[in-house]
Amino acid sequence: MNASNIITKLKNRNPSILGQEKFRKYAILLPLIEIGEETYILFEVRSMNLRSQPGDICFPGGKVDKDDKNQRQTAIRETSEELRISEADIYDVIPLDYMVSDFGRIIYPFIGRIKNIKQITPNKDEVEEVFTVPLSYFLKTNPKKYKVNFEVIPEESFPYDLIIGGENYNWRTRQIDEIFYKYNERVIWGLTAKILTHFISLLQKE
User: Where in this chain does the record put each Nudix hydrolase domain (predicted)?
Assistant: First the structure.
């Protein structure tokens, strides 16, 4: 194949994330509700019967289904299923920045408003309970940040003889920030805190 054929074949392609077909994709909704004259953020507490992260605080959301029209639809569908409300009660859904994780996940977060909040009856198979926190709390509260270090440990059969430096190769390790908010006795951290911090930063931009 000559260079001209290569250019013809590739010139109209749109770039994506390398290897994205192997990533697991999730969509999440950061729900806004109004009580009186104040805006609140709704959180879920994951059911203690779940295998993954039981008891953690999170936003509604889940895995993108092949039948979902797009990630926005996933976020609405999952919120509807977890809170047992109509999809019509979820509106003004707007995308935030999506996240690509080194652990093989792409997270698509959205914000959205929920009406008829008195109709919320959490699906107990997935949600232990729900609670709300005033948006104003996060606007005036700086989260605590802690470093987490990652270590590179090759498998036993790793071919050290094929790389410069062998077993003494200087692997690049990294750190990530884990973010913690504490509201009364509730601890909000992990992915939920990262999405929340991103959302608050957008509100605080001049």
Answer: 22-156
How long, in residues, is the chain?
Answer: 206
Taking the alpha carbons at both ends of the chain, their separation in whole angstroms is 52
Sign of the dihedral through C-alpha 111, 115, 117, 119: negative
| Residue 25: strand, helix, or coil | strand
For residue 83, which phi and psi values (nearest 5 degrees)? -100, -5
**Which one-letter amino acid corresponds to residue 68?**
D
Question: CA separation (Å) from 120 to 30, 49, 72, 103?
Answer: 15, 20, 20, 33
pLDDT in tens, 34-92: 998 899 999 999 988 888 888 899 999 999 998 999 999 999 999 999 999 999 999 99
pLDDT reported for residue 118: 86
This prediction has a pTM of 0.88
Over range 159-181, report the average pLDDT.
Answer: 92
Residue 148, CA distances (Å) to 17, 43, 176, 180 in order: 25, 25, 5, 13
